[in-house]
Automatic annotation (TrEMBL):
Region (Disordered): 1-63, 269-293
Name this protein carries in UniProt: Uncharacterized protein
């Protein structure tokens, strides 16, 4: 929190202040020999015996690496509206110090518009010094930056990973670590005291060679003089002073990688425009039996954090780290139209041969550079046998020491055209002791960063820690197995709990339904009994009503026909008498209401039937009819009982109308 408050009050570090950790031991201690030397060269110097934990715990640059700035609303500047756009600051670090450039991005390429250099050995002060110089040329500077440093090692390696199916960041870091760990350790030799003194301008190459020769001579002779170190001998010879040597010691202590924690970046060297095939997408097997070229880079994590902290302390956001080796080759694609491209890079301590086509890097070869001028035979050994279709070889050198005759000698031995690859200055005013070709690597990296070059021509290391999405880790086999087990156990216990709850719930529900069913069944039975009783009562009421209606009808009919019946009795008796014949004897007449019963004696059955027929014919006009005739045979005569009734059909019709069912029966 104290450091964050300090950043808010003072966004930039004053360049004139002393370094943050310029902590050297006593001169007597530095002159003492040490039993183990981290380098094999005679000009190497031992590192200061300083605990890494103690230095990291009290280093403000490492503490500032964890700071995160809040995103701010960025409004377009007036210069951008007029077509002048500065989107990036590009820095290049080395033994010489730190260079910074203001970058203007265009449609075809990015250009350097201003350049400044600082020789301060403290990272934070050096960045502040460069920003102070650039502010004198431009009033407003971008807040985004990239950094080129020899501490980033690049190589082309073969990995069992298909570009179509890249692995997780953790797996890729582990695979690259096995390939680059040794190369990063060897990179420490780049920070030798002699090389740093020469690159900072304190020592000439000839003086360096003289010091090395005297060291070798003293080691051959033996004695106490053989234990003297390179820097101490250079001070004794008067080539440098003690302050210059201590300055290089401090810078060497910051640049050398002493930790095992490394960070990497990678880029697939194979480029394909087609998407993944169906076989690749459907395959579940890892691509372990094949190898694919990957352009990788790596550096010390402590050094990465130190640089990030230095930029954070100056209010800049560092986006990426680029290697020096290969950056000039990346920019060669903008100036060379050849399909096959070869570039020989001459560095302070090594030679590098980078080859490839217009899109990708095919090979990166490096070797330690011998003392003195660039050696022709060493270059030929590194180049080896060139392809037959190669027409031109380019050479880049960040120093001004490349001899013109070297190009002709290489052309004579190789039989091809050899040209020097020079940077486009665009009338840029360069600081003192900065050759134009020193900007080759810077121009290649900024054009790669802005996407003007194929992404496969260079590999970079992201300055921000890329955390893979949390959901991706869920689909790893180990996590899937654990998740499946947890889900299985959780599902099993959940199912058992649900079964217990559901059984209890269904039991209670069944008891409630049974009670409700019994109650509803009882009510139903009561309703059915009441309904049956109501039907009976309704039927009885209907029968009573029918009987009442029929009785009333009959009564009305009888009352209507009562007078006629009384008047028709005399004609009836006359009709009965007329029906008699001499053989027939009328024995008795009985009258009960409308019915009459006659008892007739006939000599025979045929006479009786004839009488009944004549009687039925005679009584019909007066409204009577024969209902029944029952013969009874005696010993002498034939007795016949005849029953007459008044309008029998009328009563039957009334009954039929009142009850159709009985009438049909």
């Amino acid at each position: 929190m104290k450091l964050l408050k300090a950043l808010r009050t003072k966004p930039a570090v004053e360049p004139n202040q002393p370094p943050t950790d310029f902590d050297l031991g006593s001169p007597a201690t530095e002159l003492e020999p040490v039993p183990s030397n981290p380098f094999t060269s005679v000009e190497s110097e031992p590192l200061f015996e300083k605990s890494a934990d103690n230095s990291q715990a009290s280093d403000p640059e490492l503490d500032a690496a964890n700071l995160t700035s809040k995103p701010k609303l960025r409004l377009p500047e007036v210069g951008q509206l007029l077509g002048e756009s500065y989107q990036l600051l590009a820095f290049q670090a080395g033994s010489f110090g730190l260079r910074g450039a203001v970058i203007q991005n265009g449609k075809q390429q990015a250009n350097i518009r201003a350049l400044a250099e600082s020789r301060n050995i403290d990272f934070t002060r050096a960045v502040a010094d460069v920003l102070d110089q650039l502010l004198q040329q431009h009033r407003r500077l971008p807040k985004r930056a990239i950094l080129l440093t020899p501490s980033v090692v690049t190589a082309l390696v073969q990995l069992p990973v298909s570009p179509l199916r890249p692995r997780s960041d953790e797996q890729m870091q582990e695979l690259i670590r096995w390939e680059l760990e040794g190369a990063i350790s060897q990179q420490n030799k780049h920070w030798m005291i002699g090389s740093m003194l020469v690159e900072r301008g304190y020592l000439t190459p000839d003086q360096r060679d003289e010091v090395v020769e005297q060291l070798q001579q003293r080691q051959t002779e033996g004695g106490p003089q053989s234990l003297v170190r390179f820097g101490d001998l250079a001070v004794q010879l008067g080539f440098i002073d003690r302050d210059q040597l201590e300055e290089c010691f401090t810078l060497q202590g910051k640049l050398i990688s002493i930790d095992d924690d490394l960070v990497y970046g990678w880029q697939a060297s194979e480029s394909t425009r087609e998407g993944p095939s169906d076989e690749v997408l459907m395959s579940e097997e890892e691509d372990n039996d094949s190898s694919h070229p990957w352009l990788v880079s790596g550096m010390s994590k402590t050094l990465q954090r130190r640089w990030i902290g230095a930029f954070n302390l100056n209010g800049l956001k560092l986006e990426a780290f680029y290697p020096v080796i290969g950056s000039a080759f990346a920019g060669l694609g903008q100036y060379c139209e050849l399909e096959l491209q070869y570039l020989l890079e001459v560095q302070q301590e090594q030679l590098a041969l980078v080859s490839g086509n217009r899109n990708t890097v095919a090979e990166i070869l490096t070797t330690a550079r011998s003392r003195g001028p660039v050696d022709l035979h060493q270059c030929l050994d590194l180049i080896g046998v060139l392809p037959s279709d190669l027409n031109r070889l380019y050479i880049s050198c960040s120093q001004a020491e490349l001899q013109p005759e070297l190009l002709q000698d290489l052309a004579d031995h190789l039989g091809i055209d050899v040209q020097r690859f020079s940077a486009q200055s665009h009338h840029l005013e360069l600081p003192a002791r900065v050759p134009a070709d020193a900007l080759l690597a810077l121009q290649g990296s900024i054009n790669h960063h802005f996407g003007h070059l194929p992404i496969t021509r260079q590999s970079r290391i992201s300055a921000t820690e890329t955390k893979s999405a949390r959901w991706k880790s869920w689909f790893q086999p180990k996590n899937l197995a654990v998740a499946a087990s947890v889900l299985l156990v959780t599902g099993m216990f959940s199912f058992l709990g649900w079964m217990e709850w559901n059984t209890r719930y269904q039991t209670e529900r069944l008891a409630a339904l049974e009670a409700e069913f019994d109650r509803e069944l009882k009510v139903k039975n009561q309703l059915q009994a009441l309904y049956a009783d109501s039907l009976k009562i309704k039927g009885a009421i209907a029968d009573s009503q029918q009987q009442s209606d029929l009785t009333l009808l009959l009564a009305n009919e009888i009352e209507a026909n009562l007078g006629y019946r009384v008047q028709s009795l005399s004609p009836l008796l006359k009709a009965i008498a007329l029906a008699l014949s001499p053989e027939i004897i009328l024995g008795q007449i009985l009258k009960q209401g409308d019915d009459l019963s006659l008892e007739v004696l006939a000599p025979s059955s045929s006479s009786a039937q004839e009488y009944v027929a004549r009687l039925s014919e005679f009584v019909q006009p007066v409204g009577y009819q024969v209902m029944n005739s029952n013969p009874k045979a005696d010993s002498d005569d034939f007795r016949l009982l005849v029953q007459l009734t008044y309008q029998h059909g009328l009563t039957s019709q009334l009954l039929a109308d009142s009850n159709p069912a009985q009438a049909g029966e």
